[in-house]
Amino acid sequence: MSGGRRPMRIGNASGFYGDRFSAFEEMLTGGPLDVLTGDYLAELTMLILGRDRLKSPDLGYAKTFLRQLEEGLGLARERGVRIVANAGGLNPAGLADAVRALAAKAGIPVSVAHVEGDDLMPFAEGALTANAYLGGAGITACLRAGADVVVTGRVTDAALVSGAAAWWFDWAPDDHDRLAGAVVAGHVLECGTQATGGNYSFFTAHDVRRPGFPLAEIAEDGSSVITKHPGTGGVVSVGTVTAQLLYETQGPRYLGPDVTARLDTARLAQTDADRVSISGVVGEAPPATLKVGVTRIGGWRNEVVFVLTGLDIEEKAALVRTQLSGVLAQVATADWTLARTDHEDAETEETASALLRLVVRDPSPDRVGRALTSEAIELALASYPGFHVTSPPGPAQPYGVFTSSTVPATAVPQVAVLPNGTRQPVPAVSSAPPASEARWSGDAAPAGSGAEPTDPGRGGAGESPAGQPTRRVPLGTLIGARSGDKGGDANIGVWVERDDAWEWLHATLTAEALQTLLPETEGLRVTRHTLPNLRALNFTIEGILGDGVASAHRFDPQAKALGEWLRARHTDIPAHLLPTHLPLTPEGTAP
Question: Is the dihedral of CA 497, 502, 504, 505 positive or negative?
Fold first, then answer.
């Protein structure tokens, strides 16, 4: 491609396997695009696809993508839109063949290519899947060879965008700043409507009933504008883009196979309604290793949820636990959680009730199967008054475990399989010296990058300068937050909109303060990262999700609402930082 090309318009039509089915057609018909991407893979998805592959070696890809192409492929061809998706999962070659068959049946002349090499099976004993996170270079090679549709296996989510941008502008592998800018844009787009008002802390200020999917206008220097098609719902604001930039990242350095993007250099600006520019992103060489995501069947689980209504909730829960203690002594783990959803003097039975959840896990399905859950049901006439459960006894279900490791990038034979069938090896890009790598957990921060682990000597929650009037209010009165999972770890990104609020947030919300506000994090390693350009902090909480989402270790297994719990916690905030319309109690403090 020659220099001076116009910006590339690249959209997203899927943030996960199961996202809005109609988004594919909506993005193709809603306005001009050059490339349309779809992200279908996540840690849990790889486990699901792994179980599919056990049933048939012809499976292992996201079948939804094929169904979307039944109408979308003709539209894309008619409008000259290239399609790039990681829907190939564990079988990108199989999906590419299926796309060709679909196109032939419909009489649509399209060229199809795919990227492979990420599948590292057999990898380790007990592994169901093992996939390296590849970069965008294979996608670039396929598009340069004229592919209309490119399907991949496990590439990084942002690589769908950066790989297409490198093709559009003919960037070199060492164009680090440009590639980093595209990676940041790709990270904003990858989760679909989370960039346009979905899952947004301040959703009440906007109409987010049906957010449109996002797109980016990426310029030749790597800068971009995040927007959406005209007339679609939701909003694109500095806040929505900030929230997505913080999602499932850990440190200022966002490590990737093609480039390390410095999130702490990104600058955002609202240039118009539903238009946010991203500029100034600095790129560095990528690490010398690739992340490998490994899934395996961890064992078998089951659960029973008891409904406790009215008075003596704690005593009712204690009775059930005592009655089942004998049978539970035989299983590997048994976890009880009492959710006090009951209200005093409630006007409905449901709001007068609490939920007692029992989750059991064991290597053997027999020990946590129907025999065990039937023991719970047999208590129906012999336990607490009002005994009932939310569902009948069920069989044990397998649960998964996700772990990650690293391999040398040079050890992964990435291959671009071009439309004519040529197998083109994709060499690993030049990497950073080992000293800068620290740990490769997908988005981890290297040492010296602004990471601040838990420090008991630093300030606590709610501290403010002496003599400054404060009000005790929910933290979310002032801050936004977004949280998510990385294997067994969780991250919470928080941000504010003004410089004075940032000064308070940075000084007050330490790692120790977060642990005080969120008691479930006690005993876990919490690391704080600062992103001053975004007026944001990002916290990593190690081990809170156990073995990852597939193990269903926690009530909120992907930590999606962890940030909203933090926002709901009350603390003392300087009065001058709070909205002026905040109501006062008779004592003169905010409720």
Answer: positive
Residue 417 neighbours by CB distance under 10 Å: 25
Cβ burial, residue 405 (10 Å; 0-12/13-18/19+): middle
Residue pLDDT, tens place only, 190-199: 999 999 999 9
Ramachandran assignment for 208, one of left (phi > 0), alpha (psi -120 to 50 degrees), beta (any other):
alpha
Angle, to 10 degrees, between the axis of helix 238-246 and the axis of helix 176-189?
100
Q: Which residues pair with 291 in a beta bridge?
A: 406
* Owner of token pair 């009165």: 477
**What is the SS3 assignment for 277?**
strand
R_g over Cα of the chain: 25
Round to whole Å and give the CA distance between 124 and 417: 27
8 A C-beta contact, residue 459 and residue 507: yes
Tell me how crowded residue 460 is: count the other CB atoms within 10 A of its CB: 14
From CA 577, how far away is CA 587, in angstroms rounded?
A: 19
3-state secondary structure of 453: strand
Q: What is the pTM of this model?
A: 0.90
Beta bridge partners of 301: 361, 397
End-to-end CA distance of the chain: give it in Å, rounded. Answer: 60
In the β-sheet with 224-228, what is the strand arrangement from edge to edge? 267-272, 275-279, 224-228, 214-218, 8-12, 35-38, 82-85, 149-152, 112-116, 415-417, 423-425
Q: What tens digit of pLDDT does each residue of 32-90 get?
A: 999 999 999 988 899 999 999 999 999 999 999 999 999 899 999 999 999 999 999 99
Q: DSSP state, 551?
A: G
CA distance 270 to 277: 7
